[in-house]
Amino acid sequence: MGILTALEIIVFRGYFSGALIPPLDFLGGYNTDAHYWWQNGQFFSPVDWLPTTWAGFPAAVNVQNSAWYLPIGISNLFEPFTLHSSAILAALHVGVGYIGVYLLARTMKLDYKIALAAAVSFFFGVGYFTNAEHVDIARGYALVPWILLTISPKWPWAKAWSIPVAAFILWQAATGIYPGMAIAAIYVGLVWVTVWQFQTRSTFRQYLVPLLIAVGAAALLSAPRILPYLLLREPLDMATPDTSIFVPSMIGTLLFGYESNSLPNSMSMRSFFIPATVLALAFLSRWRDPVFSLGLSLAVPAFLLGMPFLPWFNASQGLPGLDISRFTMSDFKVFLILGITLLACSGMTHLLGIGGQRLTPRTAWGRVIILIVLTGALVEIGRKGPFVRADWLPQIVILTAVIVLIIGALLWRPRSSRSRVIVSAALIVLTAASGVLWATTNTHMWQTDREQAEVTKYGSTVSQLLKPHADTRPKRRHSAAIANARCRQRKHEGALQRAVESRCI
After folding, report:
1. Which of 12, 125, 169, 183 could be cross-linked to 91 through a Cys-Cys bond (beta carbons 3.0 to 4.6 Å apart)?
2. CA–CA distance from 154 to each of 157, 159, 165, 178, 303 (Å)?
């Protein structure tokens, strides 16, 4: 928890202090409708109508308004909604994802040092930053590790509480994340469950039956939110043309920035960043490692269904649910990145020789040579692509340091617990350095001055708008004075009426 706390303070201190918030859509109804839903209704008497946008519309029409998502309801118990409190909630979600990845890695019997490295790496999942304005996409990065954890056979299905807790997590995930990501989770989750079942050979009763019960319960809990949306939408309106584009220069976003206008797609959808250590360690993964297979079970379907340059991409959009989103590549991106992270966990296991698992020297040095060639290719992409020197050179320096560390570990072959801790600590530090450097040099999509943004959007800061307005009505005069004034007014009206009547006669 110490590392998580340090990362939260270093990266998101502006969110916690109230100085910074995410920009753009974060200030609109996309984010604030959910708080209106919770503030003006209750969990068992939900709001039917949202009057805050377009002169009002049915709440069920907007499936992205985060209604029924409990963390927002809980935040409304403590104070009225502000963009400051919403930014804090966004930062806390990153911590939830960190813990989820750590637990997921530990259930795979990975050493705690490797699980910690994976968690630090995923703290810098691109969606937390590039999609900070899109609260449901950013939340998806935090909740996907928990989805994968709860649908695995390593979830304690034999416990009495396992099914209710799993159903709760799946329900909140279906409620809180972007609909396109939820559909992607179904397709990738089917492969994930199949690979787990093949590896563990769990009996139908031990694993698949309780899993199906939990999924069914989550579907029933989601029905009050999903069914009205489906009934209110016309079938033709639900199909949305995909806008994803991938060009070779986007390979550079694996390590470099994404703010160049020469890159395609919306700025929030174009980055594939993974820390330099993850990119390097993935090349050391061992094919027969069960973690390697699980990593592929995430990365391969995400790649095959999410990459728009593949010849079958347009045809795959005809699969049920995939046409609901305009950003299919972004929807599957979280699974691709998490899959590569698991490959890196396999590589780190064999680099440290944990459990006696090591790559043969010939294989290991061959992978290092490939990694050096890749580094040279990335240098060329950085130099000739739409990236500035300050954007790509520091990451190349960190990647080079990781390669040097890997070469040193292959020569040293750490065997003692102390030597493995030293190598692991160095890898974790380099992971954090790569992530912090990337996040703090690409701030356009996740940082803006809060007060300035509020004044620009609303004409005043939210704190000022929430202050009770002073009573500007005239003070009540003495009752006798009011009575005399009313009497004089009646006499005047009576005299005027008699004068009008005499003229008419």
Report:
1. 12
2. 8, 12, 14, 26, 25
Residue 367 CA to residue 187 CA, distance in Å, equals: 31
Task: Tell me the three state secondary structure of residue 449.
Answer: strand
Helix/strand/coil percent split, the chain, to 5: 70, 0, 30
Name which of 3, 119, 111, 122 is nearest 423 in CA terms.
111
Question: What are the DSSP calls for 214-226, one per residue?
Answer: HHHHHHHHHHHHH
pTM: 0.88
Would you state the structure tokens that stand for residue 130, as one six-digit string?
């590039």
Half-sphere exposure of 31 (CA within 13 A, CB side): 25
How far apart CA 116 and CA 103 sit, in angstroms, is 9
Q: 414-418, 471-475, 482-486, 495-499 — which one is most confidently predicted on average?
A: 414-418
Residue 304: the pLDDT is 97
51, 61 contact by CB (below 8 A): no
Of the candidates 97, 81, 92, the residue with the CA atom closest to the CA atom of residue 26: 81
Cα 464 to Cα 31, 451, 454, 455: the distances in Å are: 20, 10, 10, 10
**What is the sign, positive or negative, of the torsion defined by CA atoms of 359, 362, 367, 368?**
positive
Asked if residues 204 and 157 have their Cβ atoms less than 8 Å apart, the reply is: no
CA 189 to chain centre: 18
Q: Which residues pair with 21 in a beta bridge?
A: 448
The residue among 434, 117, 47 whose CA lies nearest residue 254 is 434
User: Do 284 and 350 meet the contact criterion of CB atoms below 8 Å apart?
Assistant: yes
In a 13 Å sphere around the CA of 498, the CA atoms on its Cβ side amount to 5
The answer on pLDDT for 502 being more than 50 is no
| Contact between 116 and 429 (Cβ < 8 Å) | no
Rounded to an integer, what distance in angstroms lies between the CA atom of residue 150 and that of residue 156?
A: 9
CA distance 2 to 10: 12
Cβ neighbors of 226 (< 8 A, separation 6 or more) are 63, 174
Considering only residues 502 and 175, tell me which one the structure prediction assigns the higher pLDDT: 175
Residue 13 CA to residue 249 CA, distance in Å, equals 33
CA distance 307 to 316: 11
Rounded to the nearest angstrom, the gap between the alpha carbon of residue 427 and the centroid of all alpha carbons in its chain is 25
**How many other CB atoms are there within 10 angstroms of residue 291's CB atom?**
22
Q: What is d(CA 166, CA 172) in angstroms, rounded to the nearest whole number?
A: 10
Q: CA-to-CA distance for 433 and 428, rounded, in angstroms?
A: 9
User: Which residue type sits at 340?
Assistant: I
Q: How big is the chain, counted in residues?
A: 505
Task: Tell me the backbone φ, ψ of residue 49, rounded to 5 degrees.
Answer: -130, 130
Q: Which residues contact 482 (CB under 8 A, 6 or more apart)?
A: none
**What tokens were used for 373?**
């060639």
